[in-house]
Amino acid sequence: MTLYNTYLNEFQSKYTMYIPLTIILQSCIGSIAAMYILMNGLDTVSSLVQLFLCVIFTSFYNASILAQLKGKFVFNMLLLSLVFSALVIVLNAIQFY
């Protein structure tokens, strides 16, 4: 069994317990990514696209929980949102400093 399947099964088995935890985690990471984007300024198209995608992925994750979609889709949206936000944080932190 792969690492992905292991965490997916764990997430699905304790879905209601993980909802508040992951909403807080994902929203905090997304807001930190948005902060770094805004600290670098919105003078380029790439920074506007980064901010747009960061907000969209964060909103899609929260919406997928509110819509009570399947656990696998919610888990995939969580991973997508966290990976994208972490990537944006790293790229913008390097540019800022």
Automatic annotation (TrEMBL):
Organism: Kordia aestuariivivens
Keyword Membrane among record annotations: yes
Residue ranges crossing the lipid bilayer per the database entry: 15-38, 45-67, 73-94
Classification lineage: Bacteria, Pseudomonadati, Bacteroidota, Flavobacteriia, Flavobacteriales
Domain of life assignment: Bacteria
Annotated protein name in UniProt: Uncharacterized protein
Keywords recorded for this protein, A-Z: Membrane, Transmembrane, Transmembrane helix
